[in-house]
Amino acid sequence: MTPLPTAAAEPLALLHARCFPEEPWDAEALRRILALSGGFGRLAWQGDMTIGFVLARDLGDECEILSLGVVPESRGQGVGRALLRAVIDEAERQGRPSAVLEVAADNAAARALYARAGFVAVGHRPRYYRRAGESLAWLASYGVLPQS
After folding, report:
1. Alpha helix (H) ranges present in 36-105?
2. pLDDT for 83-111, tens place per residue?
3. Which of 18, 92, 122, 125 has its CA 20 to 30 A from that of 131?
4. pTM for this structure?
5. Can you give the C-alpha Rg of the chain in angstroms?
């Protein structure tokens, strides 16, 4: 795992496009995320090839996972789990015992990954994604959940 400086925005945009060809984020958007106060990210490597990334930011007492992607040929090998664990560990080191994220309702693999890591669905956002078909995003939370 490698931390991500703002200078990583250009290559990260290429990696993001490999992971999410239907909705890639451009380098400027990624540069803004990496420059956020409290923004951080990690890369996963296999040899000299980047095969995954995670981007997150601090939201006071919790961490928001903004994006997590693994290139198609490396999926199902534990890369996503390692990236998720790295960001949760970093957030906990910084005193943020909980995390939130959004995930496409039709992304069964990602939802299963998050569920195995202890995330639970706490709501949904209609029309969150712009792609055709199902656009519902599930909100998920990890760690300290609000009392209802």
Report:
1. 79-93
2. 999 999 988 888 888 888 988 888 889 98
3. 122
4. 0.85
5. 15
Selecting among 90, 114, 129, 142, the annotated active-site residue is: 114
Annotation marks residue 128 as catalytic: no
Residue type, 42: R
Number of Cβ within a 10 Å radius of residue 127: 8
Q: Using alpha carbons only, give the angle 17, 18, 22 rounded to the nearest 5 degrees.
A: 55
- Where along the chain do its domains lie? 2-101
Kindly state the DSSP code that residue 106 receives in the 8-state scheme.
T
Q: Which two tokens stand for residue 30?
A: 């990624």
**CA–CA separation, 15 vs 90, rounded Å?**
22
User: Are the beta carbons of 10 and 24 closer than 8 angstroms?
Assistant: no
> Which structure tokens are listed for 26?
């451009």
Per CATH, which fold does 2-101 belong to? Aminopeptidase (3.40.630)
Selecting among 10, 73, 102, 142, the annotated active-site residue is 102
Verify whether residue 10 is a known catalytic residue.
Answer: no
